[in-house]
Amino acid sequence: MSGNTWQRVVHMDRRELADRSRQELSKHLDALLARVGYDFTQGLLQGRNATPGKFFFAPNSVSLLLETLRHRLPQQAEQIVRQADKICQHRFDLLGYEDLDFGTPINWHLDPVHGKQAPRKTFHRIKYLDFNQAGDCKIIWELNRHQHLVTLAKAYRLTQDHRYADELLAQWRHWQQENPYPIGINWASSLEVAFRTLSWVWIYYLLEGTPAMPPDFRNQWLQAQALNGRHIERYLSTYFSPNTHLLGEAVALFFLGTLCPKLSSAERWQTTGWQLIQQETRRQVQPDGFHFEQSTYYHVYALDMFLHATVLASVNQIPVPDELEQTLQRMLDVLLLLGRAGAPPRFGDDDGGRFFDPARNQSEHLLDPLATGAVLFHRGDFKAAASDLREETIWLLGQQGVAEWDSLESTRPKMASASLPDEGLYLLTSNSTTQLLIHAGPQFAQRPGHGHADSLSVSLQSQGHTLLIDPGTFAYVGDERNLFRTTAKHNALRIDGTSQSEPAGLFAWKPSTGATVKQWIPGETFDLFSGSIDHYGGLTPPVAHRRLVFSLKSGLFLVRDAVRGTGKHRLDISWHLGPEMQFRAERLFSVKGTSAGLAILCVEKHGWAEEVRKDVWSPVYGRKEPITVLNFGTLATLPAEFVTLLIPLEEVRGVPGKLTRVTAESTQSAVTAYLYSTESEECLFFFAEGGTPWSEKRISSDAEFVCWQRSREGADELLIFCNGSYVELDGQRVLNYRTAVSRCEMSTRDGHKEVHASDPEALLKM
Asked: CA 9, CA 165: separation in Å to the nearest integer?
C-alpha cells in the first residue's frame, strides 16, 4: 500500500472504510464466481407480478410523437436517420470525434482514436485511467453507453425500415457475448453501466408493440437489466466518485425499480434510487443553485438527471418533494442567467456526453433543459432563452407538454447583473445584450474533480456572440489534460509562468489558497467586483494578485490587475478570443460575417510586450479548433498593475477611444488615475486606499474608487464612488455622507439630477 493510499485509509470514517472493504471483497468474489461459471442472474427475476410502471410515453402514443417530431423538428428527424445509416456501417460520431471505425464486428473494447485496446480481464484489475493500458476510456465508454442504439430505434420508428431494428438487436446480442460479466472495461464504472441501463430502457419502450421486437426479447432484456442493477447497487460510487456518478447510478436504479417490478430487487432499487436522488439534490447543489463541480457542463449534466427522474416519478404518481422541485428551479434559474446573452460560458470540465442525446454536446445545446423546465414550471423566460422546442421535451412530456409549450407566452429574461456567491460567479450586464462573467471560486472548496485553475478569469458575450471564451477540456487523459485546465488557457493573469493551482492527478489539485471576493457592488448605472488571490501558486515569498472589474451599463468593462509582492516576476495577461472573432486592427477584433466586434484597449505606452498569436480551444471533448489570443507580458519589479478596457461594439468602425494613465508610475501618490477619452466624452477612474483623503486633478475624496464620466458637449455627467463618504469637484463638495457608504452614483441628464446610494438616509444636505 502506497503512502498516499495509507493516508486516505487513515482519514476514512467507519462507514466509508466498511463500504470500500465490502466492495473490494465483492469484486474478488465476483471474479472467483465467474471463473467457476456462476450464473449472476440467478434469483434476480423472482419479483412481483405487478403491472410495470409507466414510461414517459405509452406504446400507442409513439406514432403521434414521431409525427410531432417530423413536423416541429424536421431537421432533427432527418439527422436521426442519417446517423442511423452511419451506425449500420459501424461508423460513429462520439464526443468530438467523427466517423470512428470500431470494425466489423464491433470491437467494444477499442479506443480507435489512439489505437489502444483495453485488456479483457476482470474489471477491477483494469487501470482504465492509465492511457498506456486502456487509451482514452471515455471513447470506449461513450460507444458502450449504447445511446446509439436509441438512435437506431428511433430511426426504425420513423421509417419502418427493419434494417435499423435488425442492426440494433444484432449489436445488443453481440455486446452480451463480448462483455460477459465481470470481464472488461465496460464493467469498470458503475456510471457507465447506469447509462447503458437507461439506453436499454429507451430501446425497449421504443420497440414495444412493434413487429421488430422478438418474442423472447423481454426476458433476455430483463435478465440483462437485472445484472446491471445488481452491479450498480453492489458498486455504488458512494465514496469513490460521489458526484454525477452516484447521481446517474441512483437514477438508473430508480428507473429499473419503477419500470421492472418482476426483478426481485425492484422495490429496493426504486426506494434506494429515489432516496439517493433526493439526498444528492441537497448535497451536490449549492444554495445559489449551481452544481458543486464548478463546471457549466456538469451543472447541465446533473440537471438533466434530476429532470428525467422527476418526470418519471410524476408519471408514476410518486410524490415529488417541494425541496426537489425548488432545487430544480434554482438550477434552471442559474442556467438562464448563464445563457441570457448567448450560449452559456463553459468554465470547468466538459464531459462531452449528454444524458439524452449525446450529439447535443456543444455550448449552444446546453440550454436544452430550459425547454422542458419552461413547461414544468410555466416559465416564459425559460421558453425565451430556449428559443425552440426540443426533441427531448417531446419525448419526456408528450403531446400535452407540446401543447403547454405552445400556449406559454414567451417573456424576455431580465438582464440585471447577478451573483452566485456559493459558486463564486458574478455576472455583469450592460446594454441588455452583453454579459461578462467572472469566476472567483472558492476554488475546489468541496474537492470537485472537474474545476479548473481559473480563479478571477472572465468570459464575455454580446448580441449572442462569444467574444472571450473559456478553453474547454479536450481530454481527461494524456499530456493535454493539464494544458487545458491550468491557468494559461484562461482569461486570467499568470505569475512566473505558473498556474494558480497545480494538478495532483487527472481529477485533483494540490492545496491552494484560491480566490477571495473582496467586493461585489451592483448599482443602477454600474457594477463593481473585486477579488484577490492572496498567495498565488504557492510562490515564495508570497505574491498576491487582485483583479477589479468595473462596468458601466452603457457598455464598458474596465479590468485592473494589481500584483503585490517583492522582487522581479514575469507577469502575463491573456485574452482568448471566441472562435468567431478575427483580428481587424491593433486591439480591434470583429465577429466573422457581422458588423459586431470587440475593442481591447490598454494604457498608452504601457511598456508591456504585446503579442497576437494563434492558439487552440476545445469546443467539445476530443476536438481542437483555432482561436486568436492577445497576450500582454512583462518582467516587472513589484508592485505592478495593468489596466484593460473591454468594449463590445455593435459596429466595428475603428478604435473607439484611448486610455491613458493620469498619475505617473514613479510617484508615491495615494491614488492612481486613468482617463478614457472618445470624441464625445471622457471618463476618469481613480483607485485609492479607502478611508484616507486624497486629491488628484479636479477630484478630492476618501473613497476607494471614483468614476467621473462627462460629455464633451453639454452638462450631462455621471459621478460614482464606492466605499467613501464624500467627493469634491474643484474644491466644492458635491456629495457628502455622515458615514462611508458602499456605493453612491449621481447622474445629471438634461439638467435633471438623480442620486442613488446604498444608504440614502446618510446623505447630508449641503
From this structure: 49
